[in-house]
Amino acid sequence: EPEVTQTPSHQVTQMGQEVILRCVPISNHLYFYWYRQILGQKVEFLVSFYNNEISEKSEIFDDQFSVERPDGSNFTLKIRSTKLEDSAMYFCASSLRIDRIQETQYFGPGTRLLVL
Amino acid sequence: AQTVTQSQPEMSVQEAETVTLSCTYDTSESDYYLFWYKQPPSRQMILVIRQEAYKQQNATENRFSVNFQKAAKSFSLKISDSQLGDAAMYFCAYRSVRHTGNQFYFGTGTSLTVIP
Predict the structure, then answer these.
(1) Chain B residues touching residue A42 (CB < 8 angstroms)
(2) A-B contacts (CB, under 8 Å)
(3) Nearest CA to B23 among B114, B111, B107?
(4) How deeply is A101 buried, as exposed, middle or buried, from its count of CB atoms within 10 A (0-12, 13-18, 19+)?
(5) Per residue in B75-109, pLDDT tens?
(6) What is the phi/psi pair of residue A6, to 5°?
(7) In whole angstroms, what is the distance from residue A29 CA to residue A17 CA?
(8) Touching check for A67 and chain B: CB below 8 Å?
(9) How far is CA B4 from the centre of its chain?
(10) Which of A80, A96, B52, B54, by CA, is between 20 and 30 Å from B99?
(11) Which of B42, B52, B100 lies closest to A55 in CB terms?
């Protein structure tokens, strides 16, 4: 069964550094998402992406964050200048479409980011 | 904003027994989706079951079923004949049918232990 993959599984970085988290969505999917989960807290929506542009973003997704689909397979989340509070598990997800029939989002295993 | 509450951070069940995981949510919308996702240790979230709010019939998937009480805004998951492989973190999630971004709202999760 196709899966969403994410790399790296763990990332440790120094405060102020840039990080890029990578995701490979399921190949025929059209909608892509990033979520994060700070330890002990809820999984929170960051951003959704469709047709090479952001379709929705949360308050968390400020100017320090950006997303990109640089080629036909990868979907990346960049944090420009990491802060301590960016330490979290970051999940990528994809879905085929968002109508009533195919609204299921498939999640990757996550990247655990630790900012020191 | 929609909120999802899982009041049981941890649950345990004897193998072959039945367990019910609770979830409540708050929304002013009349039509929406509800989901239960399972996240085994170090693995990605997998969809367990979903319910469309306009359907009165409770969803069932093999040993998994839900008790959807729309007026009470309650969406509990029942796992029958529990198996060792059911041990995981279970997340309840809400999705509006209105929002173009298709974002999910998650609960904090319930960690389920299955005792042999």
Answers:
(1) 4, 106-109
(2) 63
(3) B107
(4) exposed
(5) 999 999 999 999 999 999 998 876 555 678 899 99
(6) -135, 140
(7) 31
(8) no
(9) 10
(10) A80
(11) B100
- Cis omega (within 30 of 0) for bond into A8: yes
CA angle, residues B27, B30, B31, in degrees to nearest 5? 105
Distance from CA of B43 to the nearest CA of A (A): 5
Q: Kindly state the tokens that stand for A62.
A: 């400020």
Query: What phi and psi values does residue B85 have, to the nearest 5 degrees?
Result: -70, -10
CA dihedral A102, B102, A31, A18 (to 10 degrees): -150
Query: What is the nearest CA distance from B116 to chain A, expressed in angstroms?
Result: 26
Longest dimension (CA), chain B: 44
The tens digit of pLDDT for each residue in A27-58 reads: 889 889 999 999 888 889 999 998 899 988 99
Given a contact cutoff of 8 angstroms between Cβ atoms, the answer to whether A21 and A113 are in contact is yes
- Give residue-wise pLDDT tens across range A53-98: 998 899 999 999 999 998 878 999 999 999 999 999 999 999 887 5
DSSP letters for chain B = --EEE---SEEEEETTS-EEE--EEE-S-SSEEEEEEEE-TTS--EEEEEEETT--SPPEETTEEEEEETTTTEEEEEE-S--GGG-EEEEEEEEESS-TT--EEE---EEEEEE-
Helix, strand, coil in percent for chain A, rounding step 5 = 5, 50, 50
